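Q: what sequence does this backbone want?
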């Protein structure tokens, strides 16, 4: 009995120890926090840009018209040719207008002679009246004749000037440097006879050239706030550099200056009309081109994070940051322009924040992580 009881007791103790050991092996152990890489925002001066699209436009584009009637006697340019200011382009038969000028000059000379005679008569009557040898009526008549002769001379001089102007109109010249379009009339054609002026051709100035574009109302308000902080007005923007690029060009190889800002925002579009002027000596830009515009501002201190660190949801753009307790927080941010692989953060971050830039998929807001510090610039 005693030995059997002892064996049974030993077996019970062995089974109990085994059960206890199994319970210890199956106890739940929490997994370690996921590893992520964090970095403080990069601090550096950044040149921000206003970017838009627009179209090129000619500074001057004029229809050359016949301002006097006559037959086209000569066409002195080649269609599409670049001409300098003052170049003769069309000649409308000048002979009739030369004759009219000669007639006007002759009439002016006659009026001058008549005025000289009436002036002498008037002076003679003044002298006689002073000696009581001429009546007041005769003196007044002499004065009237003199005044009438002066008026006739003035009219004759006006007719001469008009005749000279009309003669000048027979030689149609380039009003500025530019490219002349294909002629719209032929040699020997009668022009200037219709009720509306006859268009002979069109001349377009290509250097300099305008670039017209628009700024949104939001952008206008932002710029106004910056100017207010500096104590400046919109006039300070005139002359600032503007960079322009064509559709098939990399970068912004064309440079000009801002030269016009509309005085008011267009309520129908909510935009402000703006214009830049560019030198175009090589005539690489033509009116009507679609272009991209970029206007740099003064470099300003900014915070930047890798662009891959920025996410988006229905609430907007955000980054994940790790707080002092190594817990992940979702932070709403306002991203700005891209600088290499880094994105400017306009609002929402401080320089001491630890932004998750690696292992983003393992970073869950509200959960703790094992954060490894690195440099954001190293991800460029």
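A:
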């Amino acid at each position: 009995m005693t030995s059997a009881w002892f064996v049974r007791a030993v077996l019970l103790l062995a089974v109990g120890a085994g059960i206890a050991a199994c319970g210890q092996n199956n106890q739940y152990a929490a997994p370690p926090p996921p590893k992520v890489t964090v970095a403080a925002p990069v601090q550096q001066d950044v040149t921000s840009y206003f970017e838009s699209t627009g179209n090129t436009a000619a500074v001057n584009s004029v229809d050359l018209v016949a301002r006097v009637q006559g037959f086209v006697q000569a066409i002195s340019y080649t269609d599409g040719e670049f001409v300098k200011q003052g170049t003769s382009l069309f000649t409308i038969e000048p002979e009739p207008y030369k004759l009219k000028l000669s007639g006007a000059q002759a009439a002016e000379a006659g009026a001058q002679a008549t005025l000289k005679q009436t002036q002498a008569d008037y002076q003679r009557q003044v002298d006689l009246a002073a000696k009581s040898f001429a009546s007041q009526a005769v003196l007044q008549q002499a004065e009237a004749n003199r005044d009438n002769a002066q008026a006739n001379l003035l009219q004759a001089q006006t007719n001469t000037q008009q005749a000279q102007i009309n003669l000048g109109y027979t030689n149609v010249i380039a009003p500025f440097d530019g490219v002349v379009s294909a002629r719209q009339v032929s040699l020997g054609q009668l022009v200037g006879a219709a009720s509306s002026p006859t268009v002979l051709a069109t001349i377009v100035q290509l250097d300099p050239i305008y670039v017209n574009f628009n700024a949104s109302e939001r952008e206008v308000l932002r710029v106004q706030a910056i100017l207010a902080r500096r104590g400046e007005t919109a006039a300070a923007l005139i002359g600032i550099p503007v960079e322009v690029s064509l559709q098939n060009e990399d970068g912004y190889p064309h440079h000009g200056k801002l030269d016009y800002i509309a005085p008011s925002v267009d309520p129908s579009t909510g935009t402000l009309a703006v214009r830049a002027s560019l030198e175009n000596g090589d005539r690489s830009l033509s009116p009507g081109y679609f272009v991209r515009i970029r206007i740099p501002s003064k470099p300003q201190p900014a915070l930047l994070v890798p662009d891959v660190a920025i996410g988006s949801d229905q609430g907007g753009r955000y980054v994940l940051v790790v707080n002092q307790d190594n817990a992940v927080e979702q932070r709403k941010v306002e991203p700005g322009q891209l600088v290499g692989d880094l994105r400017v953060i306009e609002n929402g971050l401080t320089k001491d924040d630890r932004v998750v830039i690696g292992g983003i998929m393992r970073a869950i807001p509200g959960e703790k992580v094992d954060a490894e510090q690195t440099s954001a610039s190293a991800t460029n």
